[in-house]
Write a structure and sequence with these properties.
The complex is a heterodimer. By secondary structure, chain A is mainly β. Chain A has strands spanning 5-7, 10-13, 19-24, 31-38, 42-50, 53-57, 64-68, 74-78, 87-94, 103-104, 108-112. Chain A has no helices and eleven strands. In chain A, strands 2, 4, 5, 6, 9, 10 and 11 form a seven-stranded mixed beta sheet that branches. A four-stranded antiparallel beta sheet of chain A has the order 1-3-8-7, with no helix packed on it. Chain B is mainly beta. Helix content of chain B is 0%, strand content 54%. In chain B, a hairpin with a 2-residue loop joins strand 6 and strand 7 (61-66). The chains are: A mainly beta, B mainly beta.
Chain lengths: 113, 113
């Protein structure tokens, strides 16, 4: 158990819908990262927040957004969902802001029908 | 050319074999090198962390980094069925835009009893 929690574990929704994924980092970690993992693309970095502020952006679509709250938990919002958004979404956390060793949560499996 | 290349396998070995997993990379700014293990439908788990060139050993696992060749390896001695998983290499630099963690696509390993 990495200490990073994610909810929900599974999510099934329809195209065009909006969903919110939630992540709680390990105690003491200030950075939260979001990744998307699909069979063909592997693990793709989406976005990083550090102590409430956006720190880095990766391959995140405009339909996706995230935020980190004062208690350091984070939410990833996915809107106007498409079939191709079906994937595993992982949250990771680390102590600092420079993407050193990251600890991953168990992931949310999203299926868009 | 992708920044990080990793043979996806699959790799199948008998129990007790020595396993060699490898990644090559193109970004000479990478200084931090990691190996993650990911069991099916689980989040990646940090296995080994190495800074710069050299070897690091932890039990049955040895990580090697050759920065001159831009080549990293993970060796597993006396492999066990419980080692069956996908192994992901990851690396990052420091400062600027190079600190983002970049993952290989992963190698699927099966250890047969």
């Amino acid at each position: 158990d990495s200490g990073v929690t994610q909810t929900p574990k599974h999510l099934i929704t329809a195209t065009g819908q909006r969903v919110t994924l939630r992540c709680s980092p390990r105690s003491g970690d200030l950075s939260v990262y979001w990744y998307q993992q699909s069979l063909d693309q592997g693990l793709q970095f989406l976005i990083q927040y550090y102590n409430g502020e956006e720190r880095a952006k990766g391959n995140i679509l405009e339909r996706f957004s995230a935020q980190q709250f004062p208690d350091l938990h984070s939410e990833l919002n996915l809107s106007s969902l498409e079939l191709g958004d079906s994937a595993l979404y992982f949250c990771a956390s680390s102590v600092g802001q420079f993407q050193e060793t990251q600890y991953f949560g168990p992931g949310t499996r999203l299926l868009v029908l | 050319q992708k920044e990080v290349e990793q043979d996806p396998g699959p790799l199948s070995v008998p129990e007790g074999a020595i396993v060699s997993l490898n990644c090559t990379y193109s970004n000479s700014a990478f200084q931090y090198f990691m190996w993650y293990r990911q069991y099916s439908r689980k989040g990646p788990e940090l296995l080994m962390y190495t800074y710069s060139s050299g070897n690091k050993e932890d039990g049955r696992f040895t990580a090697q980094v050759d920065k001159s060749s831009k080549y990293i390896s993970l060796f597993i001695r006396d492999s066990q069925p419980s080692d069956s998983a996908t192994y992901l290499c990851a690396m990052s630099g420091s400062g600027g835009s190079n600190y983002k963690l970049t993952f290989g696509k992963g190698t699927l390993l099966t250890v047969n009893p």
